Each structure stands twice: as C-alpha cells, then as structure tokens.
Automatic annotation (TrEMBL):
This is Phenylalanine--tRNA ligase alpha subunit. Residues 111-320 form the Aminoacyl-transfer RNA synthetases class-II family profile domain. It is found in: Cytoplasm. The lineage of its organism: Bacteria, Bacillati, Bacillota, Bacilli, Bacillales. HAMAP family: Phe_tRNA_synth_alpha1. Pfam families: Phe_tRNA-synt_N (PF02912), tRNA-synt_2d (PF01409). It comes from Shouchella lehensis G1. Mg(2+) binds at E256. Keywords: Aminoacyl-tRNA synthetase, ATP-binding, Cytoplasm, Ligase, Magnesium, Metal-binding, Nucleotide-binding, Protein biosynthesis.
Length: 344
C-alpha cells in the first residue's frame, strides 16, 4: 500500500502541474481527493493490514492527501494571480486620452412650458395656485356650475374613487378654492397649472393623464376686453410677436359668455397649410367671463364683482410650439426625444 500511495501522489502532482485551467484542477481534486477517489479506496483496504501497519499507512495516506491538496491550492493561487494581472493589463486606463464628459440631464419639456407660462403670467401680476389632485365632487363640479345631471359628470369621463371623491378632471377646482379663500373680497388673480385625469383612450392627441394651466381674474369692472388683452399678450410672448388671436363663441358651464381662443398659424403665416387645416388658425384654449352662479357659490357678489377664466392644455401648447405630432412622446422617457429640449 505504501508504494500504491506514493504512486498516486506522483500521478496526482503530475496532473496538477499539467493543468491549464481551474476546471482541470477541480477535476484533479475530485478524482484523487473525492469520496470515490483511489486514496479513499486504499484506506478502505486497511482492515487487511496488521495492527502495526495500520497507523503507518494511515499517517502516510493523510500526508499524501495533504500534499495533493496543497499543490492544487498553490496552483489555484498562481492561476488567480495570473488572471488578475491579465485583467489589469486589459483594463489599464490611458490617462493621456481625453476624458468623457458625463451626460447632463435637462428639465422635461412639459415642465419647461409650465415654467414659461408661469413667468409670463407672473409678469402680468398673477400668482400661482395649487390644489389637491384627489378632489371632492363639490369643488370639481358643483362649485363650477356643473349640476348632478351634467354630461361632463358621466362616469365614463372621470376616475371616481368614492361617490364624492375623484381624480380631478380639470384644474378649475383651484379657482373655486381660491375664490372661497378670499371670502368675497377681490381682487383674485391666479393661474393654476397641474395634472388632471380623464377616462380617455390614449392616442396621438389624447391621454388619460395630462396637464392643464388655468387662469382666473376676479375684480370690480373686469370686462371681456381685459380677457382678450391678457391672452393676446400671452400668445405673443409664448408663440412670438407676430402671432394674433381670435375669439369664437362657445359654451362652458362655468363661464358666460364663453369663447374659444385661436392663434394664427406660425407655419404658414396666414396662407393655409396642413397644420392649421387651411384655416390659418389653430385652436389653443377655452375662456370666458366667470358665470355669476360660480361667483355666488364662491362667496362673491355677482352684482359687484366680475371676472374671466381660461384654461389651456400644456401638452397642446408644447406640441404647437415645438411641432410635435404625438402626445405620447412626452411620457416615453426616450432620451433621444428629451435631449432636444436641453436647457443650459
């Protein structure tokens, strides 16, 4: 058995020396030191030895086992050191090369548009108001002259949470809350940008979640001409000094009279094109004089106070300003799209 153990040792050490990979070393470890290896088989035959030979052969078997294991571990360390050295050489940084500038983020185009809208109206003396996105039925509808049976209250148009609460369908509730907070005393001059939610099928021009910016001005002797002047100034500052607006009669439950506001097409300069559908005008927002009933429900005397309100879709303004043909581009988080609006 002594000769057999010595032979196994030399055989194993030779294979360790010849091994070229960690897998080959592991194969040697399993083959010679495993439970089914030849050293184990030798130990199982020690029962045939005399009492004097057993401890000698047992000690020799342990030495052989330890020598093989030590040789394998040593070769493993050499291979690991060699692999690390090669990796370091491959990943060596050439400090003489020019550095790579980190990619810089930018404000989202919708936030840029909201900021621009706010700056324009702040310059006209408006303040910026905020309100909850989860709104009560009263402020979202009733305080805005939308009775229980009005079509706009249909469940197909709104995300109801309970019978009396829903995701706001417009930012107009901020107007109602602001007037109520003034307790019937003017002036009230506020814009309210924010997210709104409606049950709509998403496509190139519609989204179930979008942004609005609404405005309100209530004071004594506020006239329709004031509304036209404010929105004309906004259109020229937002779209360009060469743009004009026009007012068309319309209907909204919370304003009377109500109008649709169009801005002259900046693509064709009044000649007619596919963008304006040959009409030379593009619809941008709705507006009107605040309905006396809305004033009254918010604590204002309609015989003493009057006012105007307007509402615009932020995405629509951004699409018109930057010639974007699909509203879904704003929500895909595509860096290639967003980087076009990089601000310094």
């Amino acid at each position: 058995m002594r000769e057999q153990l010595e032979g196994l040792k030399q055989e194993a050490l030779a294979k360790v020396t010849a091994a070229q990979s960690e897998k080959e070393l592991q194969d040697v470890r399993v083959a010679y030191l495993g439970k089914k290896g030849p050293i184990t088989e030798v130990l199982r035959g020690m029962g045939k030895l005399s009492a004097e030979e057993r401890p000698v052969i047992g000690a020799l078997a342990n030495v052989v086992r330890d020598d093989i294991k030590a040789a394998i571990d040593e070769k493993m360390e050499v291979m690991a050191a060699s692999a690390l050295e090669q990796k370091l050489k491959a990943e060596t940084i050439d400090v003489t090369l020019p550095g790579r500038k980190p990619k810089q983020g930018t404000t989202h185009p919708l936030n840029q548009v909201v900021r621009e809208i706010e700056e324009i109206f702040l310059g006209m003396g408006f303040s910026v108001g905020e309100g909850p996105e989860i709104e009560t039925d009263y402020y979202n509808f009733e305080a805005l002259n939308l009775p229980k049976d009005h079509p706009a209250r249909d469940m197909q148009d709104s995300f109801y949470i309970t019978e009396d609460t829903l995701l706001r369908t417009q930012t107009s509730p901020v107007q109602a809350r602001t007037m109520e907070a003034h307790k019937g005393k003017g002036p009230v001059k506020v814009i309210a940008p924010g997210k709104v939610f409606r049950r709509d099928d998403d496509d190139a021009t519609h989204s179930h979640q979008f942004m609005q910016a609404e405005g309100l001005y209530v004071d004594k002797d506020v006239r329709m001409s004031d509304l036209k002047g404010v929105l004309e100034l906004f259109a020229k500052q937002f779209f360009g000094q060469d743009r004009d607006i026009r007012l068309r009669p319309s209907f909204f439950p919370f304003t009377e009279p109500s109008v649709e506001i169009d801005v002259s097409c900046g693509i064709c300069k009044g000649q007619g094109c596919r963008v304006c559908k040959q009409s030379r005008w593009i619809e941008v927002l709705g507006a009107g004089m605040v309905h006396p009933r809305v004033l009254e429900m918010s604590g204002f005397d309609p015989n003493e106070y009057s006012g105007f309100a307007f509402g615009m879709g932020v995405e629509r303004l951004a699409m018109l300003k930057y010639d974007i043909d699909d509203i879904r581009q704003f929500y895909t988080n595509d860096h290639r799209f967003l980087q076009q609006f990089h601000t310094k």
